[in-house]
Write a structure and sequence with these properties.
A hairpin with a 4-residue loop joins strand 2 and strand 3. A 5-stranded mixed sheet has the order 1-5-4-3-2. The radius of gyration is 14 Å and the shape is globular. With about 100 residues, the protein is an alpha+beta fold. It is built from 2 helices and 5 strands. About 30% of the residues lie in helices and about 30% in strands.
């Protein structure tokens, strides 16, 4: 899945292991980074197959993925119509928020 962010500050945070660690500590920061990589490596139809992931979508189209009850990723997913058969034709997620419940600094 093609993963992007809805703001430059969120992109800067999520694309830097150092910033993730500064924000949430070593363990949680690295876990957030791994979960974002998991999202980039899967297509929208198989999100429910991610380990410890609970996936829900609300009425306005926002998808919330909660990993292990702690890491929460919110975003909007657009599924590819051709299921990735043509170059550039892939699922897309615009991440609007990332949070760690009960952890971090």
């Amino acid at each position: 899945m093609n993963v992007t962010f809805d703001s430059a500050p969120l992109a800067a945070l999520c694309n830097s292991e150092q910033r993730l660690i500064e924000r949430w500590g070593r363990e949680h920061g690295r876990t957030v980074g791994r979960r974002l990589l998991d999202l980039a490596a899967i297509d929208a139809a198989h999100l429910d197959r991610l380990p410890d992931a609970d996936v829900s979508t609300d009425g306005d189209g926002t998808t919330r993925i909660t990993f292990g009850g702690q890491i929460v990723v919110d975003g909007v997913i657009t599924e590819a119509k051709g299921r990735g058969r043509v170059a550039g034709d892939e699922d897309h997620m615009v991440i609007t928020g990332v949070a760690v419940q009960g952890g971090g600094r």
